[in-house]
Amino acid sequence: MKLKSVYILLLMLSFGFAKAQVSFVAKVSKSSLGINERLRVDFEMNKDGDNFSPPNFEGFKVVGGPNQSISNSYINGKRSYSKTYSYFLSPKAQGKFTIKQGTIEIGGEIYKTLPINVVVTAAVSKPKNGNNADYVASENVHLVAEISNAKPYLNEAITIVYKLYVSNNVSITSSWREIDSPKYADFWSQIIESKGKSQIYEGTYQGKPYRYVILKRMVLYPQKTGKLIIEPLTLDVPIDVQGNTRDVFGRRRMTRVNKTISAGARTIAVKPLPEQGRPDDFTGAVGEFQFNVFTNKNSLNADESLELKTKITGSGNLKLFDLPSLNLPSSLEVYEPVTENKVKTNSKGMNGFVGESYTVIPQYKGVYPIRPIAFSYFDLKTESYKTISSEEIIINVENGPMPNQTSSNEGITNTSKEVVLSNDQFKYIKLDADLQPTNQLAFFKSTLFWWLTGAPFLLIPLFIIGGNRRRKHLSDVDGKRLRKATKLAKKYLSEAKKNIGKQEAFYEALERALHNYLKAKLDIVTSDFSKEKIATLLSKRSVEEDVVTVFIGLLKSCEFARYTPTSDVTINQDYKKAISVISSIDKQMN
User: In terms of Cα–Cα distance, which of 285, 294, 353, 374 is closest to 322?
Assistant: First the structure.
């Protein structure tokens, strides 16, 4: 009994010792700083963990991070491991603030850091010493975000250009590192790829000569009105500054300083489109467009096909509005349209064309007019709405049945007439058959006879089993709804499936499919699309929170994928995830 007690005690002590080996702490670069300075916070652990959750950094704005670093080394046969999550913070106001607890899961246990108090004072004066490398570096390198229009209309294209200015007093010989990327949550965005290597330009900054490089060009289409915030681009830049010492040849030695520089957050005040004069058929088109409707033939026969196309050409938000729908006579059978587009995005926005191609098959002979189709858009030059109507098209069906056509034999009367037989009326009938006996076995009571006779009785159980399965299949309401929802999801995602392997085209088609699905289910227009409103509307329609989260995550993936490389595996996963989430929404929505 004593031995058992000792064993249990040793076991408990070993577990306690193992737990005591885990270390998870928070460290700050300084406990007191000026409001114009930056604070670095490191969360360090000596064992790998999962589900790291940082505090909300109340009183601070995150301008960089999280950056993750791992150190793994062996000294005298002992393994030393360290993992760190780093954040760069900018204080919002003066006062005393607390960096609250961060949490991590290690070995199935939750560990927390201790709170840290930080004092933010008034702005501190930075040393204006020309011999101080930090001061020289901060005064000679600047990151700027230039915006083409800070007060655009809803769905009007704006361009943001990030420029890194470097004076002739310093140099950058190593690559910089992007700490924090801008978020464009309320914009449709696309990066403008630069051709070749980054070119160095000559320019001025605050009236002084500088060199600069263009880091990134983005085209944005605001999808929401009001004041929208573009988060800053933050870089860690290694800057070479001339030191005070010289080498054996009398040249000044260079000192490398790593500086964190930011372009600063930018505010865009988006104006709503005017209500006055808005046409009823307006679907959100903003720009300058031309609209045409045409067919490949005007004369044909019934059951032949013709191709009818609608085409919108110009510059504007070509991918962000619905094309006008057709209203054809019922005698013309119309198939689902095939989308056609050729849209390029440059620094001024989207330009090219979008359209739909319909296959039309007339059923009857006749003349069928296709009435003019209207397309409305908001013209940015005149700041007014314009409506374009196509010309009327006449379809002439030359040959084919007439509508409600009666039988050609109707109205013919039968009259009886005496039939006169001739002597050679049946002379073609051979009276002498000249039949020969055969030695074939009788079919009656043969093996084949019994098989054919018994086969129906053998099939009766199979019919019963099949009937039961069919009734069970039809009575499975949830399964039927799921199959119907999956079929609907694949219909909306058919274009995205065609573009698997082409990242940009796939995510554009995926985003358009998700938007079109929501417009069909929730009856909202493009200008109302925001992730918060989508989440609210789906929740009100009894869609589970996990499903809503996945749907919003897909929309974010579509936005990030325009300027972030994505693997084919991720594209396939996003496609399958889209089918699943649309099926789930369609099944759960009231």
Answer: 285
What are the residues whose beta carbons fall under 8 Å from the beta carbon of 491, sequence distance 6 or more? Answer: none
Structure tokens at 451: 């098989």
> Which stretch of DSSP H or E encloses residue 155?
none
Cα–Cα–Cα angle for 409, 410, 411, rounded to 5 degrees:
115
Global pTM exceeds 0.85: no
Comparing CA positions, the residue from 377, 164, 147 lying closest to residue 285 is 377
Q: What is the dihedral of CA 451, 454, 460, 461, to 10 degrees?
A: -80
CB 89 within 8 A of CB 61: yes
Q: Which residues contact 143 (CB under 8 A, 6 or more apart)?
A: 162, 163, 164, 165, 233, 235, 261, 262, 263
Please state whether 250 falls in left (phi above 0), alpha (psi between -120 and 50) or beta: left
Cβ neighbours for 126, distance < 8 A, ≥ 6 positions apart: 36, 135, 138
Tell me if residue 583 falls in helix, strand or coil.
Answer: helix
Lookup result for tokens 């007690």: 5
Contact 521, 552 (CB under 8 A): no
Q: For residues 352 and 67, give the distance between their C-alpha atoms in angstroms, rounded to a whole number.
A: 41
Residues in the chain where the model's pLDDT stays below 70:
1-20, 74-77, 125-131, 196-197, 244-252, 404-445, 472-492, 520, 522-529, 562-565, 590
Sign of CA dihedral 427, 431, 434, 439: positive
Measured CA to CA, the distance from residue 301 to residue 291 in angstroms comes to 28
Half-sphere exposure (Cβ direction) of 262: Cα atoms closer than 13 Å: 21
> For residues 68 and 83, is the Cβ–Cβ distance under 8 A?
yes
* Confidence at residue 410, expressed as pLDDT on a 0 to 100 scale: 39
